[in-house]
Structure formats: C-alpha cells, structure tokens
Amino acid sequence: MKTIGRYxxxxxxxxxxxMLLKLAAAVLxxxxxxxxxxxxxxxxxxxxxxxxxxxxxxxxxxxxLSLFTNMYANRIAARTSSQMTRTLRHDLFSKLSYxxxxxxxxxxxxxxxxxxxxxxxxxxQLFNRVQRIGVRAPxxxxxxxxxxxxxxxxxxxxxxATLPFIGLxxxxxxxxxxxxxxxxQGILDRxxxxxxxxxxxxxxxxxxSRVPHERSxxxxxxxxxxxxxxxxxxxxxxxxxxxSFILNxxxxxxxxxGAYLVNAGRSTTGNxxxxxxxxxxxxxxxxxxxxxxxxxxxxKASALRVxxxxxxxxxxxxxxxxxxxxxxxxxxxxxxxxxYNKRQDNLSAVSFALRHGETLGVIGAxxxxxxxxxxxxxxxxxxxxxxxxxxxxxxxxxxxxxxYGKIGVAFQNDFIMSDTLRENIRYFRDIPDEAxxxxxxxxxxxxxxxxxxxxxxxxxxxxxxxLSGGQKxxxxxxxxxxxxxEILILDDASSALDYQTDARLRGALxxxxxxxxxxxxxQRVSAIMRADHILVMDEGRIESxxxxxxxxxxxxxxxxxxDTQMSLLEGAAHV
Length: 575
Hints:
- The chain is an alpha/beta fold.
- The protein has 2 domains: 2-310, ABC transporter transmembrane region fold (Up-down Bundle), CATH 1.20.1560; 331-574, 3-Layer(aba) Sandwich (Rossmann fold).
- The chain has 21 helices and 10 strands.
- The radius of gyration is 35 Å and the shape is elongated.
C-alpha cells in the first residue's frame, strides 16, 4: 500500500480541506441533540414558545449547514478520488506498455486488463469512501461518546460495553474477506480471458459448432466467480446486521437504565432523549466505519495486484555503450541462445550476419524458432547468451526509441484500429501523405483505396472486419514501409497474398528500398528464393544456410518444402 500512498500525497492539502469540512459538518450534527435536550428540559416545561423557536431555529440552521457542507465536501472527494485514480491508471498503463514480453507473459493479458479496470475502480471507491466516511464516522463516534460521557457516565458505560464486540466483528470480517477478494480478482482474470478468447475466435467457434462447449466453459468460470462473490458477500452481509444487533441491544439497555435513572431523579427526560439521539449517531457512525472496512478489504486486494505491476523492476535495461566499433555488418548474431521457460532452449547457437541492403529469408516448420528470431531482434525478450549487433553495437546498449526507429515490422496477424486507413498506416508518426501514398503503392495496396469511396480517409471497422485478410496484410506492410526503415521485417506478412501480388511486392521492395536490410519470414519458398541468404530453421537451430540454389543441393528439409510446394502449384495449374 506504500506505493499507492504516493498517489495520495499530491492531494494532501485538498484532502485536509475535505476532512476539515467533514469535521465541521460532524460537529454541527453532534450539537443538534443537545439543543433538543434544552427544548425538552427548559423551554417546554416553562411554556416558552420563544425558547422553542429559538433553539429549533438553531437546530434547523445546524442541519442546513451540515447538509451543504457535506455536499460540498463529497463533491471535492469525488473529484479528488477521480484525479488520483486517473493518475494511477495512467501510470499503470504506462508501466504495462513498457514491460518486457516475458513480464507481460507472467502477468497475462486478461489479468492486465482487469487490473487496469476493476482494480483501479476498487481503489477509486476506496479513495472516495475514506474521504467521505473515513473522517466523518470516527468524529461522530468519538464526539458522540465524549458528549454522552459528559452528559451521563453511567449510560455511556452501557454504550462502551458494546464497542469491543463491534471491534471483534470488524476484525473477523476483514481477516476473512481480504483473501476472498484477492481470489475473486484472480477468477475475474480467468473470466476476462475466457470472454476475450470467445470474442476473438467467435467465427471458428461457430464454424466448428462449439458454441455449447464455450458456453459451458464460460458458465463454469462464471459460477466459480459467483460462488466466491457469494462467499465474500455472505461474510460481508454479517457486518451490518450483526453491528445493528449489538448496538440495538445496547440501545435497549440504555432505555431501561435511563428509565430507572429518570424515575430516581438522577437524570431528565431531555437528557435521555438526547442520549438516544447520540446513540443513533454512534450506531450510524459504527456502521459507516464497517462500510469503510468492507471497501478497504476490496481496495487492499486490488492495491496489492496493482502494486505488483508498478513495482516490477525494469527487465531490459539499456546497458552502458562500449566504444564504437567499425563493422562491415549491418545485423550480426553471435552464437545466440534463448529459452522461454529457462529450462529448454528455444533457440540454440544462432549465428549469421547481413550487410546493408541484403535480404535474409527464414523458413522452417511451425515451432522451429522463426518468430523468436524477430522477438529477440526487437528486444522484446533478452537473449540468454550470445550477442545481437546492429552496426557493430550491441542492441542492449541501444535506447528503445532509437532501436525501434531503425525498424519497420509487419506481422502476419496485427491489429487494425477503428480509424481512417491513413491513420492506420501513419500510426501517430510524423509522416507526410506523399510518403504514405508511396508506401501504399509499394505494398500493393493501391486497389484498396480505389475500392473505398473516401480512399485514405475511409474509416476501418473494429479490428478491420470490413477488410479481407490480404487487404489487412498489405495495409500492415504499408505501415512498416511508411517510416522508411533501415531494417524491414516481414514476419509471414504476405501469407494471405496470392503469388502474383507477392511477386510484385518483392519487386517493389527490391527497387524502392535497396538500402533497407530485409528479413522475411515465410512459409512459401517463392517468397524467399531470391533472398541473398536463407536460413532453414529446425527445432531452434539453423539446420542449413545459403542461397536457394545451394540449399536445393545441400538441405533435405528445404528441398522437401520446395518440391512439395512446386508440385502443389503444378497440380493446381492442371486443375
């Protein structure tokens, strides 16, 4: 909770003002029963109407002032808690954005979503409740007890005898509820993940008639969440009734004791009525405090989850750069090894080198480590051993902004925003429209603009649902080309293109981007057969390397892939 506390400190002054306003309103509320006692004990027996109106007017004035003071303080509390939460949510989002891929894998996307939404909402409610009730309720409790102690110590002792039971109740509820709310948030992560998977895969789910299965899977997670909420709610449901029961027993004892005291002439009717009013104030104050503890239970569970992210250390720090080394190579890998689970290598002893403007093709079976090469070059993960160099400089010494400024990348399945095609290609970079149009032409996406009435100003649907797979891929390639990168990475980014369009794309890249070093990951031999170097990956290792002609002679894996694809093309042509 210490980390969360730093988001409260900038608002210390305004929170203090809110507390003072709440204090003033609480004092006004505490004065009202004493004025009522004066009316009953002094003005009514003497038949003084002026006294009744005078003290009644003061009571009304106190009530009105208390009302407006509370309203104003509540508005300040709502605004302050919103500002605190906005800053916290901004920092949490920023932290999540800069986590390494390994750290994000550890948290999980669904958990990140729920921490950014539900957990920050719970903290917002905690900030708000503490300001609104956290000061007012204790003041009413302490003030009420103090005044009643002055009015009648004997009756106050009856009241104080109930407070330890309330304390034990609050302690019991808090200790039981915090673990349940923590577990509840974990189940909520699973629920978000299930919904996310169903929304993303809705087409394949329907195509394979798996809707009943997915519904039952969702219901199982939902039932688990509902059961945990019910258990936590059952414990919390004890709070108000149990507290009311304890305090109402005390109220009965006060009435009975008060009746004996009045009968014995040791107290007055006005005192007893005022005492009952104070007892009601104390009762409501205790219930308010228990509500704060309920919110605290949720808030603490959420705070721990948010803090876990905020306190994550920087996983991929930029190291101190060594003296510049002149190198003939643009990209160089030196015996690089990497493991996702830190037990078994996913890449082993990978070494290759590319000069400026050269093209590297990478091919291999699914799971052979092709995309892992790209993840390491982008420094989404850190290599376990070995070095990756760009222009002779270890990428671990290159600031992220500088590194990413050198690279343009298009993945097979990337996101399309619900925005214009121009903004999807520009992606908030300072790129002129001329460069965007040129990138569109080079990516063979010109026909997309011709098909759309507004051209670049056409607004794409959510996730690009109004675009075909090939159109999406060409827009993603245009996005990568628009920044005129030094290094162009196409990670199976042309898999949805027909062979003719793919060939035109490769021709445009060779003509218009001769200085860019290109890394093309593909499943089709035709996409990489003209590359300067080709790597054949197999189980995380480079099985063989060379040109197309060399690999057709030396690599059985490459030759098998090429022969299979060529025979399929010939068969399709005959059909």
